[in-house]
Amino acid sequence: MSMDSSQIRHKNFKRLFDDFVDKHPNDPQRGMLKLFAQHLGLSDRYLSHVKCNRKNIGNIVARTIEERLKLPHGWMDREHDSLNMSIDDNEKLFVETALILFRAQPDEAREMMIDLLRQKLLSPA
C-alpha cells in the first residue's frame, strides 16, 4: 500500500527529527523538539502538532526544511527506504570507499562533493 504525500512528509519529518536527536545525545530529551524547531527556523508549537500528526506539512514548510537541512528540492516528498533494502557487495564497497574519501577531505572539499552529488541528482538523466 503506497502512502500519500502527507504520510510521506510525516515519515520523513520523523526520520529527520530522530536523526537530530541522535546527533545530540547529551542534551535533555525534553527540549529536543524546541531545539530542532530553532535549527529549522520554525515554530516549535507547529512542529509539535506535526510530530503528533495533528497537522500536515505544507509545501512551504517542506521546502523550508529541505533548504535549512541542505536537502535536495523535493526530498520531503519522496520515500527514502533505501537503508532497509538489501545491498550487494559492490554497493557496500562503493559506500565505504566514498565515506573514506569524504572523511579524508577538508570541509571545503566535502561541501564541493555534496554540491556535485546534489547537482547530479537534480539534473535530468
How would you describe this structure in keywords?
about 0% strand, 2 domains, 434 Repressor (Amino-terminal Domain), globular, single chain, about 120 residues, about 60% helix, mainly alpha, 6 helices
Major β-sheet annotation:
none
| Strand-pairing-aware structural class | mainly alpha
Bin the strand percentage.
Answer: under 5%
* Uncertain stretches: none
Mean pLDDT: 86
What CATH architecture of the largest domain do you see? Orthogonal Bundle
Q: What fraction, in percent, of the residue positions are helical?
A: 55-70%
The top level CATH class name of the largest domain: Mainly Alpha
Overall geometric form: globular
Walk me through what this model shows.
By secondary structure, the protein is mainly α. It has 2 domains: 5-83, 434 Repressor (Amino-terminal Domain) (Orthogonal Bundle); 86-122, no CATH class. It is 61% helix and 0% strand. It contains 6 helices and no strands. Helix 2 (32-40) crosses helix 3 (44-51). It is globular, with a radius of gyration of 16 Å.
Topology of this protein?
Layout lengths: L4 H18 L9 H9 L3 H8 L7 H10 L20 H15 L3 H16 L3
Helix pairs in contact: 2-3
Question: What's the gist of this structure?
Answer:
This protein is mainly α and 125 residues long. 61% of the residues lie in helices and 0% in strands.
